[in-house]
Design goal:
Layout lengths: L6 H4 L10 H8 L5 E2 L11 H10 L12 H11 L6 E4 L2 H12 L5 E5 L5 H10 L4 E4 L9 H5 L6 E7 L11 H10 L5 E5 L16 H6 L3 E6 L12 E5 L1 H10 L7 H10 L4 H23 L3 E3 L5 E5 L4 H10 L2 E2 L1 E2 L9 E4 L3 H19 L1
Parallel strand pairs: 1-11, 3-4, 3-5, 5-6, 6-7
Antiparallel strand pairs: 2-8, 7-8, 9-10, 10-13, 12-13
The structure holds pyridoxal-5'-phosphate.
The site of pyridoxal-5'-phosphate has 13 residues, from helix 5.
Length: 370
């Protein structure tokens, strides 16, 4: 069978998502399972979004609007940009794939940091092979090192991904450093600012959201998602903002009908009001602070985070700890696939979920250290 396959595809390690709750319940015969593995918003979506989804059910025999017109219009208004500056994808993951297919020519490379979102790597490798993917080291605080990345912009480096705040470390870059970096990126390189966790940033005043930059730089692309603070991970909707010429090019590779009718309607409804977003951000901030201090009280090293998750170093065998947590009904993420084999990432949940996680982590660590 392998002989039939595009050789680049054989170089890709399959993405290892957090296991579904139902799998763990079945496998270990557990009644209660808490999943804190995929940085979702743990609050259910608000009433107006549910109503919009309900209204759309009578229309499901029809294809969705391939152009995503009403959703793009709402996103454009919301961000103060033009309709022609917006493209929508089935999650921002689909837009990452579109960017690579669109801009990476033979012999060119994708450049990012080590210890970041693993999809940049797999999307590059499946399209262009392992040699097309280059990682710069991080700084000692597990933050993107923009100097190290700038130092690797050679003739081949074509697409640069900056994840800010970063997944899985939760670290953020100072605004001045991002602005200075943008100045250094030559206009014939594509610079992607992946802002999946933008809403969770502590100081929006010092955050470069990229909206000014896309006005006069055709090579800058901003990625956003409805999967995190808007609580729509299950519907797969993300978008990119960029110069109109850049969006027009991306539209050539956008699969038709790529976002479902329900996804479009729900995303529009979720931008009607900021109330749910603000409530989610506030709850996350309180629960994250508590979770951080409880992990630290257990003597663990935890990276301060400006997102809805925390990276911590358990100082025991991570795969063993992961199995022990699964058996106790807790799903979090070992980070080997993100290049940090001695760390785990836990999403910030609701208070009772975090309490359950901390109790089970305490038990599992005690058992392993015995
Ligand atoms: C940094 C980053 N970018 C993009 C995504 C993809 O999000 P989605 O495809 O759900 O929009 C994620 C999801 O975890 C992420 O962490």
């Amino acid at each position: 069978m392998e002989k039939l396959v595009n050789p680049h595809v054989l170089e890709v390690s399959p993405y290892r998502p957090g296991k579904p709750v139902e799998d763990i319940q079945r496998e270990f015969g557990l009644a209660r399972v808490v999943k804190l593995a995929s940085n979702e918003n743990m609050l259910p979506v608000p009433e107006n979004v549910r109503r919009a989804i309900g209204d759309e059910i009578s229309q499901l025999q029809y294809y969705p609007d391939s152009d995503n017109y009403f959703l793009r219009r709402r996103i454009a208004e919301y961000n103060g940009v033009g309709l022609e500056n917006v493209i929508v994808g089935a999650g921002s993951v689909e837009i990452i794939q579109m960017l690579i297919r669109t801009f990476l020519k033979p012999g060119e490379k994708v450049l990012t940091s080590e210890k970041t979102f693993s999809l940049y790597r797999s999307a590059t490798i499946e399209f262009a092979g392992t040699a097309a993917f280059v990682e710069a080291p991080m700084d000692r605080g597990l933050c993107f090192d923009l100097e190290a990345i700038a130092g690797r912009i050679d003739d081949a480096a074509k697409i640069i991904f900056i994840t800010n705040p970063n997944n899985p470390t939760g670290t953020i870059l100072p605004g001045a450093a991002v602005r200075a970096f943008i100045e250094r990126v030559p206009p014939e390189r594509i610079l992607v600012l992946d802002n999946a966790y933008q809403e969770y940033v502590d100081d929006p005043g010092d955050y470069v959201n990229g909206l000014d930059e896309i006005k006069n730089r055709k090579n800058v692309i901003v990625l956003r998602t409805f999967s995190k603070v808007y609580g729509l991970a299950g519907l797969r909707v993300g978008y990119a903002l960029a110069h109109r010429e850049t969006i027009a090019i991306l539209n050539r590779v956008k699969p038709p009908f790529n976002v479902t009718r329900i996804g479009q309607r729900a995303a529009i409804a979720s931008l009607e009001s900021d109330e749910f977003k603000e409530r989610s951000v506030g709850l996350n901030r309180r629960n994250k602070a508590k979770l951080l201090s409880r992990l630290q009280a257990m003597g663990l090293r935890v990276i301060p985070s400006q997102t809805n998750f925390l990276l911590f170093f358990p100082e025991v065998d991570v795969e063993g700890l992961n199995l022990s947590l699964l058996k106790r009904g807790v799903i979090i993420r070992p980070m080997a696939g993100f290049g940090i084999p001695d760390a785990m990432r836990v999403s910030v949940g609701l208070e009772e979920e975090n309490d359950f996680f901390i109790t089970m982590l305490g038990e599992a660590l005690a058992e392993m250290k015995r």
